[in-house]
Every structure is written in C-alpha cells, then in structure tokens.
Design brief:
The chain contains 17 helices and 16 strands. By secondary structure, the protein is of the alpha+beta class.
C-alpha cells in the first residue's frame, strides 16, 4: 500500500450517511416525477463494448472514455445513459412499445479534469422518449425538468435554457462557416462564452479561417437580445432578423416556436425558460432542440442537460427512429441545494435509538428488542443498541449520530409497564398530559408507538 494510505482515485468521492441520505431522497423524488410523466425504469451494464461508446459523443468525448482490455474484448465504462439506451433500442426493438419512455439512474464515468461540481464518477438521473419527432415531445422533456426541480425545492433560482442545433448550424453558415469543423468551432465558442475570455475565442475563430470581427458582432447582438426584457418569442424573432435565412435556420426556429407554444399549454412559467442562441452543448449526437438548466448563484454550471438525438440509434445498427431526453446531474444538484440552503445534510435516517438499560441483564435486553420490534412494525426507523456500553455511553453515541429520540426502560419502568422517551435535541414542550418542560417523559409501554409518532414530523 502507498505511504499516503487509503484514498480515493482523484475525481471520485465517498458519500457518507449525511450526504448519501440526501442523494437517495432526491433520486426517489426524481423517480416519482419520471413515472408521473409515464416513464418506466431501465437498467443497463456499466461496462459496454468499446465500439458501442466510441464516436457517439464526438472526438472530445472519446478522449474522456475509460477503456480497458479483458481477454480479447475491448471494453469501456459508459460516459452517459443515452448511448446505452440507443444500444438497447437497436438490440431490443421488437420487444419495445413506441413511443418508448424510459428512465435510468446510476454512475457514469468520464476521465475529465476534476473541479468544483465535476467528478470522474458521477450519477446521472436520465430520462428519454424514443419514437416521436413531434416538438411536443421536446416540450414534455422541458416540462418534466421544471416539475422535478420544483418538487426538489427550487422556486425562482433556475432557468431552463433552450435552443436548437438546426438553428445553430444555420447561424454558423450565415457567419461564413463552410466546413463542419468551422461550424463546430463557432458553436463551441458560443457555448463557452461564460467560461473563457472573448480574446481567446476570437483567436480560435480566426485560426479556423473565420472572421473574428463578424463573429464578435453577432455575439454582441445575441447577448444584447438575451439581456433585454423581451419575451422568448421576441428572442426567436430577433435571431431570425440577425442572420440570413436558410433551411436549417428556419427549421430550427419553427421548432422553437412550437415548443414555446406547447410549454404555455403545459403550464410552464415563461420566466423559467430562456431561449438561448449561445447554447450548443458538447455531445455530437444532438440533432435538434437542446436544453440545460442553469442556477446562476451556485456557480457549478448546468444541473440538467439534454436534447434531441434522432440519428444515434441508427448509428448503433438500429432503425432510424427519433428520440429526445435530458438528464439530472446528482452531484451538482446536491451541491446547489446545499449552497442555496434549500436542503442540508441529514445526520442520520434513524428516528429512534432503543437503548439497553443493562446489556448484561437478559430480561432488560429482551425488553429492548421487543420495543425495537414494536416500533419497526409501525414503520419507525430504529437503531437497537447491540453492544456492551453503559446507558450514558449509549445515549452519547445516539446524540453524536444525530438521532432525535431515545427510548429505554429499567427494572422500575418494566415493573410498572412503562418506558422512558428521551429527546436528544431539545426539551419537550408542555401539553395537556405533560405539564413540565423536560427532555424526557415516562409513558405507558402500550402508548409508546403513538407517543413516538406524535413526536416525529409528519
């Protein structure tokens, strides 16, 4: 073992109980929203054939894939859930009913440079709809994202940025792009405006044989339009005025107008959606509308991202079938929720600690186990002490873990058919039964479950 001792691989981390409990709760909330919108679960292997993964996200993504050789098999760790979905549809087309709505949650891997909110192993909560080319499907993706974010506790802190790859291609061609590489340079430059300086971007644009002055002028006009107080429809209209007409541009803007109309019908507040002509997203498989959610105050980039990928399934040997979807980045979402004070680490899921008054006494031990069983049968989350420490040490352990309540019974309580309920956080308030404030109460054993349920938050 290294002299540095046990440690994580750089860019990965352990999630101890306080954070893991929050993560689990968020995932369960997302699953409920996915199913509310008609999505069903799918699980795929973490390991895929290298040939399945390579070339699907573009050259930059290829460099981020973890690959290895096992025997004669060239393998890789999945970098998202979308490519495995496309492989599943290509492989199991006859077994699926279309439009096919599926969700998947689990770890994905990218050999990226670790930084705030960016890990080499992270969890994506992904949802996609396969088999519909209607812009209503894209609007539903945005509506689901909005609904889930509200369920998670967000209110006005976020905006879902939306644009279209066809429109972007038309805009790039209007700026003089003639090759696919030039198109990608313009799109990539717009996409990273908030991350790098304009001078660096201008150098990259000029290096590809494009006019940096023309690019900067168009960029300034786009940012001015986005910064105005006009509607999303006004932004679409402005893009149409600023760039010379083309089939790609008109097709993309038409889809965006339809999406905005559908979002209005779906009840999504317009102020939570931003038509963003500088949004490009990095993965090469996107073919139409693209989306990502940004929380400006948090400073961690996007917390959701996705788009339409109409050609990916065919690339993997399946039918030519349209698809669209998005994904929640769990690590970034947790960090943002902490930063904004919407949620905080949960010290423990345990609600009641059942202490053993004297572990050496079989009768007292049996009484403690019976109390734990009674509470668990009522759905209370219970930790039963199984060691040999004193009552004081037991209660100290429960307090350190953040358990709110402890229960125990000594010989006197047992003979009277009672049990002690102790608050480990604050004194109990007075009520019609208990007239003095105290941090513990003596209650009848038969009333224990009702007493605890009354104390726990509903």
């Amino acid at each position: 073992m290294s002299d540095l001792g046990p440690r994580n691989y750089k860019g990965t981390r352990d999630w101890l109980a306080s954070d893991a409990s929050v993560r689990n709760r968020l995932v369960e909330t997302l699953k409920l929203v996915f199913e509310l919108f008609g999505y069903e679960p799918l699980e795929t292997p973490v390991v895929e054939l290298r040939s399945t993964l390579f070339g699907k996200g573009g050259d930059e993504t290829n460099n981020l894939i973890y690959t290895f050789l096992k025997g004669h098999d060239e393998l890789g760790l999945r970098f998202d859930h979308t490519v495995p979905l496309a492989r599943v549809v290509a492989q199991h087309e006859k077994e699926l009913v279309f439009p096919y709505r599926r969700y998947a949650t689990g770890p994905v891997f990218r050999a990226d440079k670790p930084q705030k909110g960016r890990y080499r192993q992270f969890t994506q909560c992904d949802f996609d709809m396969v088999g519909s080319s209607n812009p209503l499907a894209d609007a539903e993706v945005i509506a689901l994202s909005y609904t889930a974010l509200v369920k998670l506790g967000f209110t006005t802190q976020f905006r879902i940025h939306v644009f279209d790859r066809h429109a972007l291609n038309g805009m790039a061609h209007a700026l003089g792009a003639q090759t696919q590489k030039q198109v990608e340079t313009i799109l990539r430059s717009w996409d990273k405006l908030a991350k790098v300086g304009r001078r660096e971007i201008a150098v990259e644009v000029e290096a590809e044989g494009l006019d940096p002055g023309c690019f900067n002028q168009a960029t300034d006009q786009l940012l001015e339009v986005m910064g105005s107080s006009g509607s999303n429809e006004a932004v679409v209209d402005a893009v149409e005025r600023l760039f010379s007409s083309s089939e790609d541009l008109e097709a993309g803007l038409s889809v965006l107008r339809q999406i905005l109309s559908y979002l209005d019908n779906l009840g999504i507040p317009s102020e939570r959606v931003q038509i963003d002509p500088t949004l490009a997203r990095g993965l090469a498989y996107y073919t139409g509308p693209i989306f990502e959610t940004v929380v400006e105050e948090a400073g961690v980039g996007s917390i959701t991202g996705g788009g339409r990928f109409d050609t990916l399934i065919e690339q993997l040997g399946g039918p030519s079938i349209p698809a669209t979807g998005s994904s929640f980045g769990l690590e970034r979402m947790v960090e943002v929720l902490y930063t904004l004070g919407i949620t905080k680490p949960e010290r423990t899921p345990v609600q009641v600690f059942v202490a053993n008054f004297d572990p050496k006494d079989r009768t007292l031990t049996n009484n403690a186990t019976a109390m734990a069983t009674r509470l668990r049968s009522a759905g209370v989350k219970v930790e039963l002490f199984t060691g040999n420490g004193s009552l004081g040490k037991q209660l100290h352990t429960a307090d350190r873990r953040g358990v709110p309540f402890a229960v125990f019974a000594g010989p006197d309580e047992i003979s009277n058919g009672d049990v002690i309920v102790k608050s480990l956080r604050e004194e109990f308030p007075t009520d019609g039964v208990h007239n003095k404030t105290s941090n513990q109460r003596q209650v009848a054993l038969g009333s224990l479950v009702a007493e605890i349920q009354a104390l726990l938050p509903s």
